[in-house]
Structure formats: C-alpha cells, structure tokens
Write a structure and sequence with these properties.
2 helices, 10% strand, little secondary structure
Length: 115
C-alpha cells in the first residue's frame, strides 16, 4: 500500500483528502471503512459496498449516517465485519482509533455520502 497524504483533512470546512478513496473500486467523496487495528501505511480503505463484499456482509441497509442493522444480532452498528469508520486525523497521515474519534471527526465522517 502506498503512503497516503491525509494531512489536508479539515473537519470544519468539510475538506476531503484527495487520496481518501476506495482501494476496491476507486470511489471518492464517500464514507470509507478501514481494517481494525492496522497501521495506516498498511490498511486498505473500502467504500460500503467493497467492505461488504470483502467481509461477506449485507450492506444494503447502511443508512446515510453509516449505520446498518447487524443481521445476526439485530443491533445498529457502523462497523462492517472487521472494518470500522476511517476517520483521518486533522494535520496527520493516520486515522483515529475507534473509541478515540472526537465529535468533530464523527460529524465529518457521518456527513459524507454513504454511496
């Protein structure tokens, strides 16, 4: 995986880094998910449909905020198998850990189109 340049993300101005794109189909300017507990240099970013295919999960019910109903247990989640929301850190070239994302980052990611 090539190193991504994510430092241009700006939550307040809704700036999306130019290389924030799906490694599966090339989709841009949409929500992306990343592998759980993987260094940014080695992770792939996937859009909702590519993450669903990769993880063999039905993503047809993912809503505009990035949540889906888990088929097995029936609860709402923003995770797709082992993939979690890919929220870049402002001014850095990496991503927030799942439980560490600030409210501004959550809002930035949720405001992106799902598809």
């Amino acid at each position: 995986m090539p190193k991504r340049s994510l430092a241009s993300v700006n939550y307040a101005q809704n700036v999306i880094p130019p290389d924030y794109k799906c490694d599966g189909c090339g989709a841009t300017e949409v929500k992306l998910w990343r592998e759980y507990q993987t260094f940014a240099d080695h992770t792939k970013l996937l859009c909702v449909d590519c993450a669903g295919k990769d993880q063999k999960k039905d993503t047809s019910n993912v809503d505009d905020k990035g949540f889906r109903t888990d088929q097995r247990f029936g609860y709402k989640t923003d995770q797709i198998g082992w993939y979690m929301p890919a929220v870049p850190i402002e001014g850095d070239d990496t991503y927030w850990g799942y439980a560490s994302v600030p409210q501004e980052g959550i809002a930035w990611w949720r405001n992106l189109p799902t598809r």
